[in-house]
Design goal:
Layout lengths: L9 E3 L7 H4 L19 E5 L19 H8 L1 H4 L1 H7 L5 E8 L5 E3 L3 H8 L6 E8 L4 E6 L5 H10 L6 E5 L5 E4 L5 E3 L3 E8 L5 E4 L15 H5 L11 E2 L9 E5 L4 E7 L3 E4 L7 E14 L3 E6 L3 E4 L5 E16 L2
Antiparallel strand pairs: 1-2, 2-3, 3-10, 4-11, 5-8, 5-10, 6-7, 6-9, 8-12, 13-14, 14-19, 15-19, 16-17, 16-18, 16-19
């Protein structure tokens, strides 16, 4: 029988990574190939069906089983009838925590059509929820005005691309939705949760001329990016949502995922029978216990995630004082 699943995080060493995954989220870095702990960590992949990076169950009767094998065995019991008919044995969402100790590259992700043609992959639409921000920390989402393809190509060639980017100051609790095709980067000093389509396709446009410890620059994908970019100006790039206590609030609604923000200091029961989808709960503040049918009880604290199978009709969320969760599912 399925139950709320938790997974072992996968740690990703990045040139721009820092230590907040450990100091703020409480995750001890694993040892690297040299037997020493990772010097930093840029990302943890919390729930992943990306080939080569499949999540492994941490607790319960399915401990040690990977998400791919569980999906192939339980099918719509795990993900829902509609989701299984749409995605088959490919788990459709990827959940990460990201610590930017330095600016990430300016980048863009292709949409489904382009990603399928070029990489036989899904595209990458994503969202960010800011957990912590250093004073003055900023990020980029989209352009600061209407831009033509020719203007963009010239800006990349002239090294003036940052001048046409929309830069936003980011605060804890801010949400940014980034459809495929939107130029973006996460700025130095931000710790965030990312929910995205299952895809690892990134076109790196500009990497601030940085070099790794071997003096090498990272590969750029400037030509591939040109046809992937949405050049329109949208004006308001930060996602507005109502901050309400003890009431679920919708923050993101897209074809790929819906995300609600749950800020509660009292027990709440959620009925999921109407969804026809799995649900992912990401704890971004506080802690709680998830009580599910069948007597299953799963503790969750800040920086941890749980996958509620589609066959689980309801859960009761019991905060330890206070909790903030991201609740995501496939519409």
């Amino acid at each position: 029988m399925l139950y709320p699943l938790t997974f072992t995080p996968q740690f990703k060493d990045k040139i721009w990574g820092g230590h907040k995954i450990k100091t703020i989220l409480g995750k001890d870095f694993p040892t690297g190939p040299d037997g020493q702990p990772l010097p930093n960590c840029g990302e943890t992949w919390e729930i992943s069906g990306v080939p080569g990076n499949i999540s492994v169950v941490k607790e319960g009767a399915l401990v040690g089983e990977n998400l791919q094998a569980i999906l192939e065995k339980f099918k719509e019991e795990l993900v829902g009838k509609h989701v299984y008919e749409t995605y088959g044995n490919e788990f459709p969402l990827l959940v990460k925590f990201i610590d930017a100790n330095d600016d990430l590259s300016i980048q863009v992700h292709p949409n489904d059509e382009l990603a399928r043609a070029r990489h036989n992959s899904f595209g990458k639409t994503e969202m960010w929820y800011i957990l912590q921000a250093d004073e003055g920390a900023k990020l980029n989402s989209g352009f600061n005005r209407e831009v033509t393809k020719d203007e963009y190509v010239k800006a990349v060639a002239d090294n003036t691309l940052p001048e046409i980017l929309n830069i936003e100051e980011a605060k804890p609790g801010d949400v940014f939705f980034l459809p495929a095709g939107r130029v973006h980067y996460i700025g130095k000093g931000l710790l965030l949760a990312e929910i995205q389509q299952t895809s690892d396709i990134t076109y790196r446009i500009y990497d601030f001329d940085r070099k790794d410890d071997k003096g090498q620059t990272r590969e750029l994908h400037t030509e591939q990016a040109v046809d992937a970019i949405d050049y329109h100006y949208y004006g308001d790039y930060k996602t507005s949502y109502d901050h309400k206590r003890n009431e679920g609030v919708n923050a993101v609604k897209s074809d790929y995922f819906v995300t609600n923000v749950l800020d509660f200091d009292q027990e709440v029961m959620h009925d999921y029978t109407h969804l026809d989808s799995f649900v992912i709960l990401v704890c971004v503040d506080g802690s709680l216990t998830i009580q599910a049918t069948g007597g299953y009880s799963v503790p969750l604290k800040k920086g941890e995630c749980a996958l509620i199978p589609a066959s689980t009709p309801s859960v009761t969320l019991v905060p330890n004082g206070h909790m903030t969760l991201l609740e995501s599912y496939v519409p």
